[in-house]
């Protein structure tokens, strides 16, 4: 490495200073920082990996007729990806998808469902409405069920925000908020930034992992007077 008086302002700078790597390639000079690994022990990743591993191992315990039932179910239930493209999932994909959602929301510890659902989800959702809750930063959600809600099922609530203004185009960066029993038709989101706008969505999830379509709305978190 060449010795220079002010290396960080010189094209001849090489090496690492305070975690920043200075180098020169055929494309020119660069300064970059080493990537830091995610602190996975403080995230949900270990739990999610454990669930997926548990379900994948249980797939190996299924009988051929049971696996065939999942292949048949997958063949009649195409999925849509984040780009809006429809694709055909495999029996294993369907098994993992439905059971991982059922475990995450239901916190089940038993062996996942052995055979595919024999019937489609009979309950949908309609008329999602958001109103001011009690206190600042609290939003109440109300909806109706298309069918009779079952206590063992779940209503999953997700949220995106905060945003500085009401959105004209729906966002996609939702995060899990909470879930309530399937026979309830109301939910509460709290500790939100007062005066900020939020997108909210709700769907019905059966204990077998089947889901209804999402319902969407947006609302501004109320401000305490």
Please outline the helices and strands.
Blueprint: E1 15-17, E2 20-25, E3 28-33, H1 45-59, H2 64-75, E4 79-80, E5 86-87, H3 91-106, E6 124-132, E7 139-146, E8 154-163, E9 175-181, E10 186-189, E11 197-205, E12 215-220
Antiparallel strand pairs: 1-2, 2-3, 4-5, 6-7, 7-10, 8-9, 8-11, 11-12
Helix pairs in contact: 1-3, 2-3
Shape: flat
CATH architecture identity of the largest domain: Sandwich
Distance between the first and last residues' Cα: 63 Å
Spans of at least 5 consecutive residues with low confidence: none
Say what the CATH topology of the largest domain is.
Answer: Immunoglobulin-like
The number of domains is: 3
Q: What percentage of the residues does DSSP assign to strands (E)?
A: 25-35%
Give the biggest beta sheet: 4 strands, antiparallel
Order of strands across the widest beta sheet? 9-8-11-12
Individual helix count = 3
| Fraction of residues in helix | 10-25%
Based on secondary structure, the structural category is: alpha+beta
Rg over CA atoms, rounded to whole Å, is: 24 Å
Q: What is the element string, with H for helices and E for strands?
A: EEEHHEEHEEEEEEE
User: What is the β-strand count?
Assistant: 12
CATH class of the largest domain: Mainly Beta
* Mean model confidence by pLDDT: 86
**What would CATH call the homologous superfamily of the largest domain?**
Immunoglobulins
């Amino acid at each position: 490495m060449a010795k220079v008086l002010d290396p960080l302002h010189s094209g001849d700078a090489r090496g690492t200073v305070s975690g920043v790597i200075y180098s020169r390639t055929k494309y020119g000079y660069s300064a970059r920082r080493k990537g830091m690994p995610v602190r996975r022990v403080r995230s949900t990743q270990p739990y999610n990996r454990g669930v997926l591993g548990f379900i994948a191992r249980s797939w190996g315990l299924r009988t051929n007729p049971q696996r065939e039932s999942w292949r048949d179910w997958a063949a009649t239930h195409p999925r849509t990806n984040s780009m809006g493209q429809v694709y055909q999932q495999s029996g294993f994909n369907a098994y993992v998808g439905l059971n991982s959602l059922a475990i995450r929301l239901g916190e089940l510890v038993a062996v996942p469902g052995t055979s595919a659902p024999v019937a489609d989800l009979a309950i949908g959702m309609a008329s999602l409405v958001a109103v001011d809750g009690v206190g600042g930063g609290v939003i109440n959600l109300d909806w109706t069920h298309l069918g009779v809600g079952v206590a063992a099922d779940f209503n999953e609530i997700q949220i995106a925000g905060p945003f500085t203004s009401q959105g004209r185009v729906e966002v996609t960066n939702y995060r899990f908020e909470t879930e309530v029993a399937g026979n309830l038709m109301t939910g509460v989101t709290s500790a939100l930034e007062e005066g900020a706008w939020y997108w909210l969505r709700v769907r019905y999830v059966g204990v077998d992992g089947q889901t209804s379509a999402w319902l969407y709305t947006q609302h501004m978190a109320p401000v305490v007077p």
